[in-house]
Amino acid sequence: MADTAPSHGTTAEPEGTRRDFLKLTTTAFAAVGGGALAWPFIHQMNPAQDVLALASTDVDLAPIAEGQAITVMWRGKPVFVRHRTAAEIEAARAVPLSELKDPQRDEQRVQRPQWLVMIGVCTHLGCVPLGQKPTDNKGNYNGWFCPCHGSHYDTSGRIRLGPAPSNLPIPPYEFRSDTQIRIG
Question: What is the pTM of this model?
Fold first, then answer.
C-alpha cells in the first residue's frame, strides 16, 4: 500500500536552507580570517624601502664632457655612461652587422646618439671591462677591453673579439631632461 500522508497545506521547502546559509557564512568568515592572518607573512616578503630606493638611479649628464665616461652603480652593478664624440658615433655606425658576433645596430643601443648607457659587466664571466678612464686600455676597437679573458668591445659596447657571447647589456633608462637620465 502506498504511504499517503495527509497534506496540511504546507508548501515545498525553499531551495536554500538555514544550514546552507550557515555553511556559506562560516566559509566566508574563515576565508577572510585566513587572509587576515596570512597578510603579514606575505607582506614581509616585499622588498624593503632601502632596496626599492636602489631600483632607480638618477644621473646628471651636465658635468660629463664630450669623450668622457663615468660609472654609476645601479642595483649593485656598474653602469657605464659615455658622452660619445662624433668620431665614436661614426665608428659605431660604420660597422657592418655581418662583422658582429651579436648583431645589433648602434641606433638600437642608444636613445640619443651622443649618450651610451650600458651595464659594465662582461658577458663572458662577469668581470668589469676597462675603458672608462682615459688611461685605460680600450681594446682593438677603442671601446672597452676585458683583460681577464681578452674580450674587446667597440664604441657601442658590442662584442667584437674574444670569448664574450653577447654585447654589453643596455639597462632600462629614460631621459628626464636634456641633462638628466633615470636608470631603472
Answer: 0.69
Verify whether residue 152 is a known catalytic residue: no
For the chain, which ranges sit under pLDDT 70? 1-15, 49-54
| Per-residue CA distances from 61 to 66, 77, 132 (Å) | 10, 19, 15
Task: Give whole-number Cα distances, 157 to 96, 103, 112, 161, 174, in Å.
Answer: 15, 12, 15, 12, 19
Q: Which of 43, 124, 149, 152 is catalytic?
A: 149
Beta pairing partners, 180 = 60, 177
Determine the CATH number of domain 52-183. 2.102.10.10
- Give, as one character, the DSSP assignment of residue 41: H
Domain boundaries, the chain: 17-46, 52-183
Cβ 141 vs Cβ 151: under 8 Å:
no
Take residue 1 and report the three cell numbers written for it.
Answer: 500500500
